[in-house]
Amino acid sequence: MMGGGMMGGGFGSFGLMGGLIGLLFNIAIIVGIVLLIVWAVKQFNRSPGASSQAPSANQPLSAREILDVRYVRGELSREEYQTRLSDIS
User: Fold this and answer.
1) Which of 58, 55, 83, 51 has its CA nearest to residue 70?
2) Which residues contact 23 (CB under 8 A, 6 or more apart)?
3) Mean pLDDT, 10 residues at a time, over the chain (89 residues)?
4) From CA 53, how far away is CA 61, in angstroms rounded?
5) N or C: lower Cβ tally within 10 Å for the chain?
6) DSSP codes joined into one string, 8-34
7) Domain ranges, ordered by start, for the chain
């Protein structure tokens, strides 16, 4: 007999389960590193004070803000925008 009593089949002393656990652990480490990088990029790309300038979801828009949004979306022509802007000013 040549194996010297070792029956692991090339997976070390833990057998197949040890190899699978090691593989899952390595995958978890890689996923953790990727998530950390994504979080860091989001933190560094965020403009300072952006959260204080963003309108609250519960706060209604003013007439000027609604008019601006409609103009940007292309719902109003330039002339309509200027006419309505002068109406609300």
Assistant:
1) 83
2) none
3) 51 67 92 95 76 64 91 92 90
4) 14
5) N
6) STTSGGGHHHHHHHHHHHHHHHHHHHH
7) 18-44+61-88
